[in-house]
Amino acid sequence: MTTPLPPLDVWYCCDQTLCNFNCPYCAAGLVRSAHKGKMWAGNESAALYKKVIEWIAAQSGFEKGVRLQTFGEPFLCDAFLEGAAWLSHRANIRFVELVTNGSRLLQEYGPFAERAEADRITLWITYHATECDAETILKGALFAQSLGALVIINLLLFPQTLQAVLVMRDRCLEEGLKVHVDLGYLQQNIPIVHERPDIVSRLYQWPDVLAMHLTAAITPFGQACHAGQAFIRILENGYVAPCGPLGQGAGHPVRFGHVLDPDFHLAESLYKTPKACTHRAACRCKEEFLNFAVLQKKYVRQRSMGLVEPRDPGPATNDTDAIVGLGAAGLKLKKALIHHHRLTPPGSGQ
Ligand code: SF4
Ligand code: SF4
């Protein structure tokens, strides 16, 4: 009898590039403008996407949670949705998570849910306050939730959109939608940390996750990390890596293999234990730094690559020790956090 492999989280970002929004902070802005108006970045992109989806399905022995991301808006792209729906029916799939701007759900989610295993679908809906009204997003989110999706509304904290985000947060809570509040990046900066650390410390759900987020945004070097052991990143070119920062690194990228290589066997390549991170620049994506061993001991990602829940559902702890990891960019925030948690008893619901 073969020993079952531990569960695997898979983050795949394909190069579907068309989007109906034009957010000023879009991290995929350069890629999208290079392929303006095109559904996919390259002529072979859609075919590679299909191969990758099939490769993920073929990895047997793992329980797999899969986040499918694009450089654009997936609910504009039928070929993308067809692949996601197909994957959701395959064996050993815990969830298929789609990252969307939420603007097309009223039109597109019904037909998609009919094709998919609807109760394995997670929707990570990021609210872009400059591009779309809140009520459209809410209606689409509630509609998808009514058809079985687990829905998370992701709110990005930027100084300019703070009021809109706060209003949206209240509306989501009124409507019974799960909310996730995150730091908005503007190129290499996180402006809200410098301008409104008080708001960050109040709205970011877990102080120790925040501390590690800010640590990773400076450098994760030396941190024990489960990337490559319980998590893989599939790059848009089909290479499989422990994570994006290592897999895309200049010079000597760390890659396990390519999905089109018939001799590549993932299970034999994965690390057996967490490894100390060797990346000296920032690790900015939540999907990736949430693999820090220190966080994985305490938190679990059940149905989403971005949302952590405590393994022990007891009262929230005031984990000020964890914020020792804060670097220079987080010093103001650290003070605000300590101050806030002196004033706020654990479990007060903030
Ligand atoms: S919705 Fe997403 S992909 Fe589209 S412009 Fe905004 S940030 Fe970029
Ligand atoms: S901390 Fe980030 S860069 Fe380092 S191994 Fe983990 S995911 Fe990769």
TrEMBL record:
It comes from the Bacteria. This is Radical SAM domain protein. Keywords: 4Fe-4S, Iron, Iron-sulfur, Metal-binding. The lineage of its organism: Bacteria, Pseudomonadati, Thermodesulfobacteriota, Desulfobacteria, Desulfobacterales. Its cofactor is [4Fe-4S] cluster. It comes from Desulfosudis oleivorans (strain DSM 6200 / JCM 39069 / Hxd3). GO terms for molecular function: 4 iron, 4 sulfur cluster binding.
